[in-house]
Amino acid sequence: MSVVDRQEWDVVVVGAGGAGLRAAIEARERGARTAVICKSLFGKAHTVMAEGGIAAAMANVNSGDNWQVHFRDTMRGGKFLNQWRMAELHAQEAPQRVWELETWGALFDRTKDGRIAQRNFGGHEYPRLAHVGDRTGLELIRTLQQKIVSLQQEDFRETGDYESRLKVFQECTVTRVLKEEGRVCGVFAYERESGRFFVLEAPAVVIATGGIGKSFKVTSNSWEYTGDGHALALLAGAPLLNMEFVQFHPTGMVWPPSVKGILVTESVRGDGGVLRNSDGKRFMFDYIPDVFKDKYAETEEEGDRWYDDPDHNRRPPELLPRDEVARAINAEVKEGRGSPHGGVFLDVSTRMPAEVIKRRLPSMYHQFKELADVDITAEAMEVGPTCHYVMGGVAVESDTAAARGVPGLFAAGEVAGGMHGSNRLGGNSLSDLLVFGRRAGWHAAEYAAGLAGARPVVDDVQIDSAAAEALRPFSAEAETEEPAGGPPENPYTLHQELQQTMNDLVGIIRRAPEMEQALEKLAELRLRARRAGVEGHRQFNPGWHLALDLRNMLLVSECVARAALERTESRGGHTREDHPGMDRAWRRINLLCALTDPTGGLAATDPVRGQIALTRETTEPVRADLLALFDKEELVKYLSEEELYE
Amino acid sequence: MSGYTAHFKVWRGDVSGGGLKDFEVEVNDGEVVLDIIHRLQATQAPDLAVRWNCKAGKCGSCSAEINGRPRLMCMTRMSVFGREETITVTPLRAFPVVRDLVTDVGFNYTKAREVPAFVPPAGVAPGEYRMMQEDVDRSQEFRKCIECFLCQDTCHVVRDHEENKQAFAGPRFLMRVAELDMHPLDAAAEAGLDRKTTAQDEHGLGYCNITKCCTEVCPEGIKITDNALIPLKERAVDRKYDPLVWLGSKIRRRSSAG
């Protein structure tokens, strides 16, 4: 009975941000006919919001830099929970990925001798971030977009059709990854504009959908960040890894309310900006944790000297990794030393001349001027933590980006877990997108080619049930009698309640009773979400789209809450008030989330059992030559006794 | 400081037609027009169609016409209007309506494909590109473009003359040609592609009569007319009337893929 349009491709990439586009370029260049599906217009993905830069040890500014130093910084930033093989590949390959962008037309800011300039950033030992002012993400997305267009121009010259080998399906949403006999066979999607359903049949699917920030009230993330890829992978049977680690960026705007959460780039601090409390004190000096004690300046004088003479001074503590700075700001505000609108002060106005600020931080200048009436060259900004990034994600094989347990499924970028451990360093996201986007595209293309002639087929039953699931919000409203359990629910209201719950109960500082309460609330919301009803028809109907996205947000929120409750320690983007210390025994433990019901059944009513089952897994020991990059005294802080003697 | 109720007129409809619909809606301190549109969605019109993403003027999705002027909804603060003023929000006029505030901007993607891509210089390996900051400043200015298409919407060459769309790339994509032409390492010329000539012959540079409407609406403050279009026109004219350049270009051309 299915009259759903079907098309055949070799590789389907879900998501058109940095990772998705890089994957698509790679797959197409390796001969796979590749389709990209994205929720927004082509070129609008959330990657455009990245401001600071791309971390890559090119050593253009400080010749002491190399991949080993970058690897070390990444592991420290992630508190040694990182999948070390991913961190190794990332540090080794990032320079090549940046240089390649130049051959596609990217124009980075330059050093005096004409090479790519690199700036300082939190947690990076040397100036390492390739950048374009504070709009690096835009440069990245535009360069990849234009590379895709140039490949399409090539195909047009050869075949007369721009889209014969590489096509972007923009403003479309994927609701299910389809499988046959355990293997991926395609995706089910709808066009946002018309509401029309379609199926792309393909043996390999790359998920590159980004993060989950829209489950939290205060976030720097756009509407697209509803955890779609995380949920698609879960529903397809792939486990998620370490979902308790959510990064709260220390500096989001706090006022006016309508822009609360919008990002203030870390470059402000990288270029010399300082944090002060209401007493005018640079409070970060009081918050240097033991593991970083010998690496950060102890006085303002030393910190200030570091900008000009980094070889003989230690860096200021404003440049600690993000989790440390976010917690410090949170503590200052809580103790009554916050700014008028509940943040702290971030000041560049007394640190740099106005014209330097406007040149180096143009979009920050613009953003504050336009949205908050604040001139950052003359006065301090008010900033506070905002939900920014999820370190957890689809558990993947480090080298191939293949999702564990589901042949044909790949994941790259924010949606993939492991690379950043418990906390991501600024600048490591854009490089992650490029390094693992490419690897995902490469291995997806190879996998698809290997199945030539023996591809799994999509059966009609799956399509019908995916269609029925997608249409349910309309029937909730259409039924004359009340649907079972109560009246129809407004999806916008449900979404607001979900965001409030996650923000208040599973936010930056966590406590066991609150997370238990969150799980109960999530169970209630799950039931109510089954009755989420919408008005109107299927043509560009945002209420309907939100009703469908709720399924995904509820799934990932439960993963975050459940894993956060389980991990009884504080590490990186997971802070437990009731377990404030980092516990070396937890370093080797990964928490995996899987669907409780392997048939994909949803909306379990029991808050204790819920939809998600957790398992613990002990990770492989870090390879000896990589461990040898660290001093023994440092390793003692992270590794347990038995690991040290192994 | 406190909230008030504003009068809004929002265009609702689709390809088959539509009209302005009145709304009374709450406005709070510091809000922008997009916040109000979202409040309408959440409380009065759940199926009101609107595009948006970043809410910070960086992605260029929420373009619309506010009181007739092309603007980003996320960067238009409510405080620029009087409390008694009726605020009218309509879709971009130069593009076909899909639904409510959403238009079909496919024209722009078609034009983007018609501009030949960056041509990497032969014999320069990745990592060996050397460019001076002052030589990339100008192209970097154009690469600030967030593709909101407000310039395309306001440009009267297409806004009032649908028939010109075939031959005219619009300010955004003429600026793209200028960006590549001013890129210090673009090797188009070596590959037989003269971007100045094609700007004139294939992308309709001649239609532009430098009224600067595009520059006026650019939310990024890019000086599209002064820094991209006029210099491109000057260079194109040099090509046309300098017989030596003309002859040289005829001899060197051809090797490009057709």
UniProtKB/TrEMBL annotation, chain A:
**Where, if anywhere, are coiled coils annotated?**
none
- Pfam families recorded: FAD_binding_2 (PF00890), Succ_DH_flav_C (PF02910)
Query: Disordered: where is this region?
Result: 473-492
| Keyword set, alphabetical order | Flavoprotein, Oxidoreductase
Which ranges carry the FAD-dependent oxidoreductase 2 FAD-binding domain? 10-430
Keyword Flavoprotein in the entry? The reply is: yes
UniProt-listed InterPro entries: FAD-dep_OxRdtase_2_FAD-bd, FAD/NAD-bd_sf, Fum_R/Succ_DH_flav-like_C_sf, Fum_Rdtase/Succ_DH_flav-like_C, SdhA/FrdA/AprA, Succ_DH/fumarate_Rdtase_cat_sf
Which Gene3D superfamilies is this protein grouped with? FAD/NAD(P)-binding domain (3.50.50.60), Fumarate reductase/succinate dehydrogenase flavoprotein-like, C-terminal domain (1.20.58.100), Succinate dehydrogenase/fumarate reductase flavoprotein, catalytic domain (3.90.700.10)
Q: Does the keyword Chaperone apply?
A: no
Which residues belong to any copy of the Fumarate reductase/succinate dehydrogenase flavoprotein-like C-terminal domain? Answer: 495-592
Q: Which PANTHER family match?
A: SUCCINATE DEHYDROGENASE 2 FLAVOPROTEIN SUBUNIT (PTHR11632), SUCCINATE DEHYDROGENASE [UBIQUINONE] FLAVOPROTEIN SUBUNIT, MITOCHONDRIAL (PTHR11632:SF51)
Q: What's the protein called, per UniProt?
A: Fumarate reductase/succinate dehydrogenase flavoprotein subunit
User: Organism, per UniProt?
Assistant: Streptomyces indiaensis
TrEMBL record, chain B:
Q: Which UniProt keywords apply?
A: 2Fe-2S, 4Fe-4S, Iron, Iron-sulfur, Metal-binding, Oxidoreductase
Gene3D superfamilies given in the database record: 3.10.20.30, Alpha-helical ferredoxin (1.10.1060.10)
**Similarity comment text for this entry:** Belongs to the succinate dehydrogenase/fumarate reductase iron-sulfur protein family.
Xref: PROSITE patterns: 2FE2S_FER_1 (PS00197), 2FE2S_FER_2 (PS51085)
Give the pathway.
Carbohydrate metabolism; tricarboxylic acid cycle
Kindly list the cofactors needed: [3Fe-4S] cluster; [2Fe-2S] cluster; [4Fe-4S] cluster
Under the heading CDD domains, the entry gives: fer2 (cd00207)
Residues in domain 2Fe-2S ferredoxin-type? 6-93
Query: SUPFAM superfamilies in the record, alphabetically?
Result: 2Fe-2S ferredoxin-like (SSF54292), alpha-helical ferredoxin (SSF46548)
PANTHER family in alphabetical order: SUCCINATE DEHYDROGENASE [UBIQUINONE] IRON-SULFUR SUBUNIT, MITOCHONDRIAL, SUCCINATE DEHYDROGENASE IRON-SULFUR PROTEIN
Pfam families per the record?
A: Fer2_3 (PF13085), Fer4_8 (PF13183)
Annotated protein name in UniProt:
Succinate dehydrogenase/fumarate reductase iron-sulfur subunit
